[in-house]
Amino acid sequence: MEINKDPCAKACKPRGRPLSFDREQALEQAMHVFWRRGYEAASISELTAAMGITAPSLYTAFGDKERLFLEAIERYASGPGGGYMRALREEPSAFLAIQRCLEESAEELTRPCHPKGCMMTMAATNCTEASAHIQAALSKRRAEADEGMRCRIEQGITSGELPAGTDAVALSNFYVAVLRGMSMQAADGASRETLMATAAAAMRAWPAPG
Question: Would you say 109 and 122 are in contact if contact means Cβ atoms under 8 Å apart?
Fold first, then answer.
């Protein structure tokens, strides 16, 4: 009977083969496919072709299409889509924060290096009931962003930057609607200059102090 002389040998044995591709680069490409095609329309074959890997490698590295999509959304939120929340945190006034949101969105939504429009909006289009949980995940993220806008406006009311009677919810909903409209316009081919003009017009609707 053979005796294993090293009790740690089995525990130390590597599990599975190491990935033979750059996982982060593959995720970046998957993000672009979902961004351009939407969750349901993006097929496994289209994803693997863009990522430069096989289907078994996709499942090994990411689990399945749904988990790959959710990782892609996280990557978007911390990358191209991250400027929105940074602007709300960093600017000294609500006016400057929302102006920066609009202007940076005009830049980001029209960059030639990635699909046009906002991934949070575009990836959820044309989803059926079978993907209701994906829709819910995206809706939750959008709601969090909307809440950030409302809170920043409320801070402006509290500080006296905005009139005391300002309806924070209505004003927030207005600027959220402008941002989402800009996303759809960008997806339809609107230029940076067009979106910047929209942003400027929207900021002229800002309530006068006092």
Answer: no
Helix then strand then coil, in percent of the chain rounded to 5, is: 65, 0, 35
- The Cα–Cα gap between 58 and 2 comes to 39
pLDDT of 210 above 80? no
Give the 3-state secondary structure of residue 161. Answer: coil
Asked whether the beta carbons of 27 and 79 are under 8 A apart, the reply is: no
pLDDT digits (tens, 9 = 90+) for 8-18: 444 443 344 55
State residue 12's pLDDT score.
40
27: its two tokens: 């995720």
Task: Quote the CA–CA distance of 105 and 126 in Å, as a whole number.
Answer: 23
Phi, psi of 91, rounded to the nearest 5 degrees:
-75, 145
The Cα–Cα gap between 9 and 26 comes to: 33
Distance (Å, whole) CA 60 – CA 39: 20
Q: Please state, in angstroms and rounded to a whole number, the distance separating the CA atoms of residues 69 and 74.
A: 9
Backbone dihedral angles phi then psi of residue 194, each to the nearest 5 degrees: -65, -45
pTM over 0.70: yes
**Cα(203)–Cα(107) distance, rounded to whole angstroms?**
16
Contact 106, 199 (CB under 8 A): yes
Mean pLDDT of 64-82: 92
